[in-house]
Amino acid sequence: xxxxxxxxxxxxRVDASAGYAGxxxxxxxxxxxxxxxxxxxxxxxxxxxxxxxxxxxLGPIGREPVLAQWLIAPAMNENPNFINELAAQRVTxxxxxxxxxxxxxxxxxxxxxxxxxxxxxxxxxIDGFEGSLDEHKHxxxxxxxxxxxxxxxxx
Length: 155
Prior knowledge:
The protein is α/β, with parallel strands linked by helices and 155 residues long. It contains five helices and nine strands; from the N terminus they run αβαβαββββαβαββ. It has a single domain (21-153), classed as Rhodanese-like domain (Oxidized Rhodanese, domain 1). A hairpin with a 4-residue loop joins β5 and β6.
């Protein structure tokens, strides 16, 4: 699937009132970051999640994920420096920003907020890094980055 086709499919998955450009699957996110040098995978989970759960490994394609906490533990308040942290890692309003959290809770909020701040190419990674709970109440097996078999490393 060509990059343009991914963007088109992503825009069709989301209602126009969502406040961001579209929804991408984990496989589509991988392809976008692999094929588009202006696409960034932004992991917005907490430092603890990166350390204990793991992070996407973009090394096989010569890239690194952008790590920027959307919420700061332990209070889980929004990070007031989020935009500056993205800019410091070369994510600017003209770039494709693919937001990924653990499941699906934070990413759409970050994508909406960044779109409202002039970042018009914001996408949300469906199912996040670990995805939804399976029948044993475990994550990482049903859907999301890990379940898709995409590369990741322990933090």
